[in-house]
Write a sequence for this structure.
């Protein structure tokens, strides 16, 4: 659907992404032609596997399994009749589309001539509104394709064309969905997770790794930065008698650490799963004070989403089950019953004055582990 000078760049990116997910043995050749990508399949290619794979590729609006017909109308009509012998239908229509205006017949003429032939050969009825079988005929250059179904793709933009971002990933429901939405807009997403090991179990880190694996179905592979956060939490707790401010302080440190890594590794933005008002830490005031810890843009794609819709999305994406597992979140450590919902920057800055902010950050980054994670 793209026009203009960027189009070849997007098409190449999409082609490369398709090649990554589709088993190499399934495809004999694959080409870009007039706004389509056409792959010639090998005999042994498995449609179900291909369908599952293609439904994870951003940038595909729809796709079809097609027959390649001769471009000469008499021959293609004969071939179409042969193929239709294998189909069970009582009503049908032909829906022709011509990308090549040099073809001797117009789309309407193809509809009429092929339609008449099918009526004559099979004695079936035309139904333009509700046919049992819709025969799509697409004329693209010298090639003519016949198919019966358009399968829906994910839409969006090919992963990689928009650059790369760093997503703050917990093992909850929200941040995996937020990350996925950035992939949908063409970003490569890498992940950063803060953990309180050994205060919390290794298991929560394993859950995060599993979530990353699922998300990588949509982008192949990614990096996961695992940052030890316990020491920072202990320091914050020691220096803030007013426990209600702690979550905000935790979040500001997470942002600063993420930004440090983003500067070093050239990520264009940070991503979180915040949704306005969903929990106490996600009020307008708190989000404002948290954002002021850094200068990099922070993308919060779920800010206006309802929880039920986020849960539905997590089910679709495949992260729901892992996020449902009970886990001990680092952020629940040392927290009060009544956290601040109206953070004030001066109160926060006064506490941070008592902390060795830069040293805490560089210590955490020094002890950070980096994993490269592929898809399942
Ligand atoms: P989620 O479902 O993503 O855990 P949440 O509703 O539990 O979100 P919070 O716990 O307030 O909300 O976290 C808000 C956002 O902060 C998360 O969506 C995530 O982007 C980030 N975040 C929270 N905890 C961590 C963590 N341990 N490591 C990395 N990022 C985190
Ligand atoms: Mg959470």
């Amino acid at each position: 659907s793209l026009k203009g000078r960027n189009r070849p760049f997007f098409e190449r990116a999409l082609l490369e992404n398709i090649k990554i997910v589709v088993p190499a043995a399934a495809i004999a050749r694959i080409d870009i032609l007039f706004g389509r990508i056409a792959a010639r399949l090998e005999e042994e290619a498995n449609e179900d596997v291909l369908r599952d794979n293609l439904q994870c590729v951003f940038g595909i609006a729809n796709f079809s399994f097609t027959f390649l017909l001769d471009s000469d109308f008499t021959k293609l009509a004969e071939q179409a009749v042969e193929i239709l012998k294998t189909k069970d239908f009582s009503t049908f229509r032909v829906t022709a589309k011509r990308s090549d205006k040099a073809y001797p017949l117009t789309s309407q003429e193809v509809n009429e001539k092929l339609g008449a032939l099918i009526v004559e050969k099979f004695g079936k009825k035309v139904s333009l509104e509700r046919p049992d079988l819709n025969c799509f005929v697409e004329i693209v250059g010298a090639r003519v394709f016949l198919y019966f179904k358009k399968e829906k793709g994910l839409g969006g933009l090919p992963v990689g064309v928009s650059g790369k971002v760093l997503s703050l990933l917990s093992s909850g429901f929200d941040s995996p969905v937020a990350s996925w939405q950035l992939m949908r807009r063409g970003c490569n997403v890498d992940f950063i997770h803060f953990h309180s090991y050994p205060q919390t179990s290794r298991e929560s880190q394993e859950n995060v790794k599993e979530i990353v694996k699922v998300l990588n179905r949509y982008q192949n592979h990614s990096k996961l930065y695992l940052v030890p956060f316990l020491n920072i939490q202990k320091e914050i707790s020691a220096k803030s008698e007013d426990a209600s401010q702690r979550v905000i302080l935790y979040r500001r440190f997470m942002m600063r650490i993420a930004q440090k890594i983003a500067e070093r590794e050239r990520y264009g933005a940070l991503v979180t799963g915040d949704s306005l008002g969903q929990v106490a830490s996600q009020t307008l005031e708190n989000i404002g004070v948290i954002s002021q810890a850094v200068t990099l843009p922070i993308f919060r794609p779920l800010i206006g989403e309802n929880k039920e819709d986020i849960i539905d999305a997590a089910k679709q994406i495949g992260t729901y089950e892992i996020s449902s597992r009970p886990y001990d979140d680092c952020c629940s450590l040392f927290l009060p019953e009544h956290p601040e919902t109206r953070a004030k920057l001066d109160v926060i800055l006064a506490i941070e004055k008592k902390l060795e902010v830069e040293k805490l950050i560089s210590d955490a980054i020094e002890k950070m582990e980096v994993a490269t994670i592929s898809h399942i």
